[in-house]
Design a protein that fits this description.
mainly alpha, 9 helices, 0% strand, globular
């Protein structure tokens, strides 16, 4: 009887601990959710009545959004000094890769591979910051500031965040590589579609059949963008998606293992 009672108490304690962990994770995910919601609203401005402000006004908003998420991660202590140093190092490597391969090979760039791996091992918020800051800082370093920047920043951020959502348990085995490769393939099209919104609305505005026109219905928007995407971007995005898969299959296992070692060193685990 005493053993049965002790077992019930242990199960109740375990359930309470799991519930507490779930609540903590939900609170920790709120900053990233808010940033993503704001980014989606900003990038989908053709669907909204009244249009949107010029791109020069959106750049400070993008910077403020990234700084707000960075500050939230610091306040929640999910990003301590060691993880911040790792984030800065990864962003520097990603910037160097992007600058060294400034002429993308038919849409493919090796920078996406490191964003995927960082997000998968270190979590959605870390992955979002790794991707978004890499695109923001590399464009800033080269002076390539324009209406495309907010789209690139959020698209790369969502690529890293999505990889973090796929993680089930610590590891760098074949199934982990397969998950990263699968998301890298899908993310290649996602990144292209998000960034194409800027090209479509900025450069193709008013173009018959393919372009965007103010006042279009949702069905007309979807149909016109679909025609534009297939005609102008599908080939390049397929090359990007395939390149992500190949690079992940070849290099992901040692990179994931190295990042996992960093994560374990930077994470304090208390045994019950």
């Amino acid at each position: 009887m005493a053993l049965h009672g002790a077992g019930c108490l242990a199960r109740a304690a375990a359930c309470a601990e799991e519930g507490l962990k779930a609540r903590i994770e939900a609170i920790a995910a709120m900053p990233l959710f808010a940033v993503s919601l704001l980014g989606a609203a900003c990038l989908a401005w053709p669907l909204l009545p009244g249009g949107a402000p010029g791109w020069t006004r959106s750049l400070p908003l993008v910077f403020a959004t990234l700084m707000a998420l960075l500050l939230a991660e610091l306040l929640l202590r999910r990003l301590d000094a060691r993880r911040l140093s790792l984030l800065a190092s990864l962003v520097a490597i990603e910037c160097a890769l992007r600058l060294a391969t400034s002429a993308d090979i038919e849409g493919f760039s090796p920078v996406f591979f490191l964003i995927l791996c960082a997000g998968y091992v270190l979590g959605p918020s870390f992955g979002f910051l790794a991707g978004a800051l890499a695109l923001f800082m590399s464009d800033l370093a080269t002076g390539l500031l324009g209406p495309w920047l907010p789209y690139q920043v959020f698209a790369a951020g969502w690529l890293g965040a999505g990889a973090g959502l796929l993680r089930r348990r610590p590891g760098a085995g074949p199934w982990d590589v397969a998950r990263v490769a699968g998301w890298g393939f899908a993310g290649g099209y996602l990144y292209g579609a998000v960034t194409d919104l800027q090209t479509w609305t900025f450069y193709y505005q008013g173009t018959p059949s393919l372009g965007w026109h103010s006042g279009m219905s949702s069905a007309e928007l979807a149909a016109a963008f679909g025609r534009f995407y297939i005609a102008t971007s599908l080939f390049f995005d397929t090359f990007r998606a395939t390149g992500n898969v190949l690079l992940t299959v070849i290099l992901a296992s040692p990179v994931l293992l190295a990042l996992e070692r960093f994560r374990r060193r930077f994470t304090l685990e208390v045994a019950a």
